[in-house]
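hey team, just a heads up i'm posting the complex here instead of the shared drive bc the drive is being weird again. everything in one block, sequence lines first with there labels, then the predicted structure for the whole assembly after. its two chains so it's a bit long, scroll down
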Amino acid sequence: MDGLRRARAMALKEVMHILRDRQVLVFALGMPVLLLLLFGYAVSFDVEHIPLAVIDQDHTPQSRELRAAFVSGDTFVPVVETSDAEAVEPLFRRNVARIALVIPHGYGRALGRGETAEVQLLADGSDNTTASVALGYANALALSVNQRSLATILGTAEPPLSVRVRTLFNPGLESAIFLVPGLMVLILVIIAVMLTALTIAREYERGSMEQLFSTPVGRLSIILGKLGPYFVLGLVQVLLTLTLGVALFGVPVNGSVLLLFAVAAVFLLAMLMQGLLISVVARNQMLASQLALLSTVLPALLLSGFIFPIENMPPLLQGIANVLPPMHFVRALRAILLRGNGIAVIWPDVLALAAFFVVLLTLATRRFRRTLA
Amino acid sequence: MAEPAAAPIIEVQDLTRRFGDFVAVDAVSFRVERGEIFGYLGANGAGKSTTIRMLCGLLAPTSGSARVAGFELPDQAVRVKSSIGYMSQRFSLYTDLEVAENLSFFAGAYGLRGARRRQRIDYALEVAGLTDRRRALTRDLPGGIRQRLALASALLHEPTLIFLDEPTAGVDPASRRSFWRLIRQLVREGTTVFVTTHHLDEAEYCGRVGLMVDGHLTALDTPAALKRTHVPGTMLAIGGDLSVPALRSALAGQDGVLDIQPFGRALHVRVRGPLSDPDAMARALERAGITGADITPTEPTLEDVFLTLAAGSTRQNEL
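-- predicted structure starts here --
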């Protein structure tokens, strides 16, 4: 009871510190909004409006039909029309076009005769993502042109093989819906680890930790009081990020919101412990902030599956990703939000988060206990 | 567990603390009686803060025993912490918080509640002279006031014993004097004060003074007794309108002159034998060609004691 009262005194003091220092609040509440807008609107992994150069040397109805098929969607925008094949490389060099469609002389005639007609697609490989996406679209287009021609030749209404693709859970394959869970991880790790690491390192730095230890306040009360306010702040951020995600980007909430918050709470606890461990080891704000940044942003960006699929990584990195919380949290969030999964599906990820929390709690409190006595 | 009131409030036996090969405090033993102002003197690194931190339960001793306010250290550290106040050298208060917020936090940390909490916070504000400025930001207060507030916040739970580690470091002389008035008032009210300082003039206020040199407690007594024991002879202040170098060389040749120390624009000269008499000294100086010397008997200071005791030390640096 006494311990709780002292923890409350610590927590009240921490709230005062936070309220006095506007930067913390601006940082904590402004960053989610900024990151969401940035990633939601500015950063898009959907490739559109790729500048296309069309080199039509054939000038037949068939060649014009192929051109029309390429530019009918939003994917390609014709920026240059020419019949000079030599023009392609300079266009790429000057960054005027990324993709070039070369329809050689005789294309239309070959098609008319039922022979194999060849077209050439040139891609600027210096932008890897755009190139591969563009080539994918182009292949799909070529396939559909092929199917139609085949159907005409064979005299059937339907082509022999038809693959119908239907994407579940994110039908439009929109980046934002996929990104919001990842962003939530990024935001939470930065706030939870960075702010707690800084606030505890500050107590060491200005000598107040020793003053605290000279009072009857127990170490558990210090930890509870110090971390409690940031735990609440973290949950507010979850709410903020989720609300913005739903309102601005139409992120679906197919699963239980309560479960989502419960998982977020476990994740937050793990991150707070990471912050505590960092501050107890570093004992000064400079080092603590660097350690916090390194140990949070890198895993959250690279090893969470937020942007880069974990499955394609070398085994060592996959192993690390499996130990750290971000990947599990992203996976659990996507499962709850997009697929509507319950605890029956996500429990392995929750267990992994809880295990990380327990291990760090043990390390941090052991280290904390030895700091002075 | 409470001890009879007559028992010493601090009892330390062979207290030792090592950091690796470095012996910060080496087999120190002493007692502090209730209601005393106990001064702990020494150069930086002599082991003063390490001793205090052990007595406050912040640092475990390597060996030896310590009993503080009736409780054994380090086993009963938590109970010790409830009975003592501690003002550390590095930190006084949270400067980004208001005066009242600081007090309110420390009252909570010491577990005060209800009417007693309000009453003690009011007391602390009064001690610090900040009753009208409770909403002031602590960082805006002058250093001297801040020290008083720090002391007041260490007194919130009415400790019987208070440890002050260099409480007046970096504080102007006027504030230092008023701070010491406050300390003497606390002692009159029954609190025991354990204070470290390297202002030797402050040590004169202490009932007893312990001198730390290189982790050893080399002397412990009342200021007067320390001077008698460690600075034998008579101290004469010799000044006036004359050339100090000439005076110095004249004195150097005299019989019974034990020590010459500059003191402001005069010299403090420690003498034994016939020249202890100011008139005899004046005649001796006149024979050596120095006239018009102003000679008055004076008391040796603790600085003289310290210089004598620390003379053999290798680690002695400032002071």
